[in-house]
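Team,

Forwarding the record for the chain on the shared tracking sheet. I've put the sequence and predicted structure together so nobody has to dig through attachments.
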Amino acid sequence: MKKNVLSVVVMVLAIAGLVFSSVFFAKKSDFVQGWKKLASAINRGSAEMDKGSGTEYAESLSVRNLQHEKYAQMDRHLMKLQAQSRAYAKSRDVLAQAAAAVAAKAGISKFADASTLSKVNDSAAVDEMTREVNTVFENRDRSYANAAVLAKGLGYTLDTGKLTRGESDALEPFFRAIGELANRRRAYEKALKSIAVNTELRSFDLSENGYKSSSQQLLSSVAKYQSAHEHLAKMLDQARAEKQKLSAQDEEQKTQIAGLRKTLSDRERQIAGFKQALQEAPVLADPKTPWTAGSREAKAALEAKVSRVDEQYGIVTIDAGSDTTVTQRLAKGAKPNVVNVGLAVGNEIIIVRGELPQNPEYLTSLKLEKVDGTESVGRIPAGCTDIRVGDRVILRPIQNVAVK
């Protein structure tokens, strides 16, 4: 009986040992596989942290070095993982601080806290920060471009490359232009104040609050003075036109006076000749002495008239010619003496208006250029336009002739 019980116990223990061994070996296999996966995960994580960090921990934390068979060396290898993790965390914190500083400078308040950035592991948040930073730089570049355009409008060149690099002399042309604008503004203000004084504006305020109303008042005042100036200019133009008109009239009158003086001079010359003719008048011989043809007495006795005036050709025709005769009254009972006057080319005649011997009006004198049997022709002197048909023609001087 005891043997049987013992056999059963031995059998039970054998079965239990067999079951335990089987379970033990199954668990060991699972443990080894899990250990390998853990070692592989540690190696991959270390390799990822090595990227771009300048460290080489992944080589020491290889799957081979982390096998369970090398459990005695495990602590030494895992200490490297701790060191790598601390270095990685430090780098992350430094980068977070740098990013926060950039965000603060760029005015991106959402990312200005380094502690917040250290906890960010969302790619969407990173993308958002990247967009915000890009927007800041785009705004900066746009501002630089606008500043360059403004500087160009002021006649200066602004180097946006220097602005981007932060060179100290980048804004020098812009500051110079602003300075010149300030100088111009002061000059303009001085000129505007001077205009305000000259246009009798009692107050002129160029401050931020008063320049609009003052400018409007100045414009109104200048417009008033401009209107007055235009009125004066118009009056001045009228005066100039009147002056030109008077000058033209004066020139015309001077021309007329010169013409009248010439006419007067011609008349004086003609009158002088007429007077000389009067002074040279022949003394009529004794009536009992007959005249001879062509004698001075016969010419002095001629009385002829203007028969035709041709103003187009400037000639005058008289009714006496080479066949014209005059009659001399001799003593009572004696036969009249008829003699030829002897008119010839070159004889000078005097044309008068009015009856002789009553004060005839002297018109002109001229020389005969053509003499026919019954008429003669002479050229009208320049300036003489008043000869008419019927005016008297004489070759002899008449006493007591009034010259008009």
